[in-house]
Known about the structure:
About 30% of the residues lie in helices and about 20% in strands. The chain is of the alpha+beta class. Strands 1, 2, 3, 4, 5, 6 and 7 form a seven-stranded mixed β-sheet that branches.
Amino acid sequence: MLASDATGRASAAVDLYWLPLGAGGHFVRLNGRIYEALAARARRRPACDLYHSALQVKVAEGTFVVEQAPVHDWSGMQRGVVAEGAVGSRWAGRFRIFRYEIRLWFGGHIPDVAEAVDSPRRLTNDEDRARRVLDLVGQVPTPVWGRDELATGDMWNSNSVIAWVIARSGIDADLIQPPAGGRAPGWHAGLVVARRQDEEAARTAVVSQEHSDGR
Protein backbone atom coordinates (compact mmCIF):
# COMPACT_ATOMS: atom_id res chain seq x y z
CA MET A 1 0.00 0.00 0.00
CA LEU A 2 1.21 3.51 -0.80
CA ALA A 3 1.92 5.86 2.05
CA SER A 4 -0.12 9.07 2.09
CA ASP A 5 0.85 12.70 2.58
CA ALA A 6 -0.92 15.21 4.82
CA THR A 7 -3.71 15.66 2.28
CA GLY A 8 -4.43 11.92 2.16
CA ARG A 9 -3.13 11.56 -1.41
CA ALA A 10 -1.00 8.53 -2.26
CA SER A 11 2.74 9.24 -2.30
CA ALA A 12 5.57 7.60 -4.20
CA ALA A 13 7.45 4.53 -2.99
CA VAL A 14 10.50 2.45 -3.85
CA ASP A 15 10.39 -1.12 -2.51
CA LEU A 16 13.21 -3.67 -2.61
CA TYR A 17 12.50 -7.39 -2.92
CA TRP A 18 14.92 -10.21 -2.09
CA LEU A 19 14.20 -13.43 -4.00
CA PRO A 20 16.05 -16.70 -3.32
CA LEU A 21 18.32 -17.49 -6.24
CA GLY A 22 16.52 -19.86 -8.58
CA ALA A 23 13.09 -19.25 -7.07
CA GLY A 24 10.67 -21.26 -9.18
CA GLY A 25 13.47 -23.16 -10.94
CA HIS A 26 15.24 -26.17 -9.42
CA PHE A 27 18.10 -26.18 -11.97
CA VAL A 28 19.23 -22.61 -11.21
CA ARG A 29 18.78 -23.13 -7.48
CA LEU A 30 20.90 -26.30 -7.53
CA ASN A 31 23.68 -24.64 -9.51
CA GLY A 32 23.59 -21.68 -7.15
CA ARG A 33 24.03 -23.94 -4.15
CA ILE A 34 26.97 -25.72 -5.80
CA TYR A 35 28.59 -22.37 -6.66
CA GLU A 36 28.12 -21.05 -3.12
CA ALA A 37 29.43 -24.26 -1.55
CA LEU A 38 32.62 -24.02 -3.62
CA ALA A 39 33.00 -20.28 -2.96
CA ALA A 40 32.50 -20.78 0.78
CA ARG A 41 35.03 -23.58 0.88
CA ALA A 42 37.60 -21.52 -1.03
CA ARG A 43 37.17 -18.61 1.39
CA ARG A 44 36.86 -20.82 4.47
CA ARG A 45 33.50 -19.44 5.55
CA PRO A 46 30.03 -20.93 6.05
CA ALA A 47 27.84 -21.26 2.96
CA CYS A 48 25.08 -18.66 2.66
CA ASP A 49 21.69 -18.47 0.98
CA LEU A 50 21.98 -16.55 -2.30
CA TYR A 51 19.55 -13.79 -3.26
CA HIS A 52 18.50 -11.94 -6.41
CA SER A 53 17.03 -8.45 -6.03
CA ALA A 54 14.36 -6.43 -7.81
CA LEU A 55 12.59 -3.11 -7.30
CA GLN A 56 8.98 -2.01 -7.42
CA VAL A 57 8.57 1.73 -7.93
CA LYS A 58 5.25 3.49 -7.41
CA VAL A 59 4.52 6.98 -8.74
CA ALA A 60 1.34 8.82 -9.65
CA GLU A 61 1.19 7.19 -13.10
CA GLY A 62 1.31 3.66 -11.71
CA THR A 63 3.74 0.93 -10.72
CA PHE A 64 6.99 -0.08 -12.44
CA VAL A 65 9.12 -3.18 -11.90
CA VAL A 66 12.90 -2.82 -12.26
CA GLU A 67 14.76 -6.10 -12.75
CA GLN A 68 17.44 -7.86 -14.74
CA ALA A 69 16.42 -11.24 -16.18
CA PRO A 70 17.20 -13.61 -19.06
CA VAL A 71 15.90 -12.66 -22.50
CA HIS A 72 12.91 -14.97 -22.93
CA ASP A 73 11.88 -13.88 -26.43
CA TRP A 74 12.03 -10.88 -28.73
CA SER A 75 8.89 -9.18 -27.36
CA GLY A 76 10.93 -7.07 -24.97
CA MET A 77 8.83 -3.94 -25.49
CA GLN A 78 5.97 -5.66 -23.66
CA ARG A 79 8.22 -6.06 -20.63
CA GLY A 80 9.62 -2.53 -20.79
CA VAL A 81 13.11 -3.66 -21.78
CA VAL A 82 15.49 -0.68 -21.92
CA ALA A 83 18.85 -2.45 -22.34
CA GLU A 84 20.44 -5.84 -23.00
CA GLY A 85 23.82 -7.44 -22.37
CA ALA A 86 25.74 -10.65 -22.87
CA VAL A 87 25.95 -13.58 -20.45
CA GLY A 88 29.30 -15.30 -19.93
CA SER A 89 31.10 -13.75 -22.91
CA ARG A 90 30.47 -11.09 -25.54
CA TRP A 91 30.81 -13.70 -28.27
CA ALA A 92 28.09 -15.87 -26.73
CA GLY A 93 25.84 -12.81 -26.45
CA ARG A 94 25.06 -13.08 -30.15
CA PHE A 95 22.62 -15.84 -29.19
CA ARG A 96 19.40 -15.03 -27.34
CA ILE A 97 19.93 -17.76 -24.75
CA PHE A 98 23.12 -15.99 -23.65
CA ARG A 99 21.63 -12.52 -23.24
CA TYR A 100 20.05 -10.67 -20.34
CA GLU A 101 17.59 -7.79 -20.36
CA ILE A 102 17.01 -4.87 -18.01
CA ARG A 103 13.33 -4.11 -17.49
CA LEU A 104 11.50 -0.93 -16.60
CA TRP A 105 8.13 -2.62 -16.77
CA PHE A 106 5.06 -0.44 -16.33
CA GLY A 107 2.33 -2.47 -14.66
CA GLY A 108 4.67 -5.46 -14.59
CA HIS A 109 5.20 -8.15 -12.00
CA ILE A 110 8.18 -9.73 -10.27
CA PRO A 111 8.29 -13.47 -11.09
CA ASP A 112 8.07 -15.70 -8.01
CA VAL A 113 7.47 -12.68 -5.76
CA ALA A 114 5.56 -15.00 -3.42
CA GLU A 115 8.91 -16.58 -2.49
CA ALA A 116 10.52 -13.23 -1.57
CA VAL A 117 12.20 -13.16 1.84
CA ASP A 118 12.06 -10.25 4.31
CA SER A 119 10.32 -8.23 1.60
CA PRO A 120 9.29 -5.71 0.55
CA ARG A 121 11.73 -3.30 2.13
CA ARG A 122 10.61 0.30 1.76
CA LEU A 123 13.63 2.37 0.68
CA THR A 124 11.93 5.73 0.30
CA ASN A 125 8.61 7.52 -0.10
CA ASP A 126 10.28 10.54 -1.68
CA GLU A 127 8.82 11.22 -5.14
CA ASP A 128 11.97 12.85 -6.52
CA ARG A 129 14.01 9.81 -5.52
CA ALA A 130 11.45 7.44 -7.03
CA ARG A 131 11.44 9.31 -10.33
CA ARG A 132 15.22 9.46 -10.29
CA VAL A 133 15.25 5.65 -10.04
CA LEU A 134 13.01 5.41 -13.10
CA ASP A 135 15.15 7.88 -15.06
CA LEU A 136 18.34 5.96 -14.31
CA VAL A 137 17.29 2.47 -15.37
CA GLY A 138 18.00 3.11 -19.04
CA GLN A 139 21.53 4.31 -18.14
CA VAL A 140 22.63 1.16 -16.31
CA PRO A 141 25.99 -0.20 -17.55
CA THR A 142 25.71 -3.50 -19.42
CA PRO A 143 28.99 -5.40 -19.02
CA VAL A 144 29.07 -9.18 -19.45
CA TRP A 145 26.98 -10.97 -16.81
CA GLY A 146 29.02 -13.15 -14.45
CA ARG A 147 32.31 -11.41 -15.25
CA ASP A 148 34.27 -8.59 -13.63
CA GLU A 149 34.93 -6.50 -16.72
CA LEU A 150 34.74 -3.27 -14.70
CA ALA A 151 37.43 -4.36 -12.22
CA THR A 152 35.35 -4.04 -9.06
CA GLY A 153 36.43 -7.27 -7.39
CA ASP A 154 32.93 -8.69 -7.84
CA MET A 155 30.97 -10.17 -10.74
CA TRP A 156 28.35 -8.10 -12.57
CA ASN A 157 24.81 -9.48 -12.36
CA SER A 158 21.22 -8.59 -11.47
CA ASN A 159 22.20 -7.43 -7.99
CA SER A 160 24.75 -5.06 -9.52
CA VAL A 161 22.00 -3.43 -11.58
CA ILE A 162 19.74 -2.87 -8.58
CA ALA A 163 22.57 -1.63 -6.33
CA TRP A 164 23.76 0.76 -9.07
CA VAL A 165 20.29 2.24 -9.61
CA ILE A 166 19.67 2.67 -5.88
CA ALA A 167 23.05 4.27 -5.20
CA ARG A 168 22.93 6.65 -8.16
CA SER A 169 19.41 7.75 -7.24
CA GLY A 170 20.69 9.15 -3.96
CA ILE A 171 19.24 6.43 -1.73
CA ASP A 172 21.82 5.13 0.77
CA ALA A 173 22.62 1.68 -0.61
CA ASP A 174 25.63 1.03 1.63
CA LEU A 175 23.39 0.14 4.57
CA ILE A 176 21.23 -2.33 2.63
CA GLN A 177 21.89 -5.97 3.48
CA PRO A 178 20.30 -9.21 2.20
CA PRO A 179 18.19 -11.31 4.61
CA ALA A 180 19.99 -12.78 7.62
CA GLY A 181 22.29 -15.63 6.66
CA GLY A 182 22.16 -14.59 3.01
CA ARG A 183 24.49 -13.11 0.41
CA ALA A 184 23.88 -11.04 -2.72
CA PRO A 185 26.77 -11.62 -5.16
CA GLY A 186 27.27 -8.65 -7.46
CA TRP A 187 25.86 -6.04 -5.08
CA HIS A 188 29.33 -4.65 -4.33
CA ALA A 189 30.06 -4.28 -8.05
CA GLY A 190 27.05 -2.03 -8.53
CA LEU A 191 28.04 0.18 -5.59
CA VAL A 192 31.63 0.53 -6.79
CA VAL A 193 30.64 1.54 -10.33
CA ALA A 194 28.00 3.98 -9.03
CA ARG A 195 30.54 5.59 -6.71
CA ARG A 196 33.04 5.97 -9.56
CA GLN A 197 30.46 7.63 -11.77
CA ASP A 198 29.29 9.95 -8.99
CA GLU A 199 32.89 11.02 -8.39
CA GLU A 200 33.46 11.57 -12.11
CA ALA A 201 30.27 13.64 -12.34
CA ALA A 202 31.41 15.74 -9.38
CA ARG A 203 34.82 16.38 -10.98
CA THR A 204 33.19 17.32 -14.26
CA ALA A 205 30.86 19.74 -12.46
CA VAL A 206 33.82 21.43 -10.73
CA VAL A 207 35.73 21.82 -14.00
CA SER A 208 32.64 23.18 -15.72
CA GLN A 209 32.07 25.68 -12.93
CA GLU A 210 35.70 26.82 -13.08
CA HIS A 211 35.41 27.39 -16.82
CA SER A 212 32.19 29.37 -16.40
CA ASP A 213 33.88 31.49 -13.72
CA GLY A 214 36.74 32.19 -16.10
CA ARG A 215 39.37 30.48 -13.99
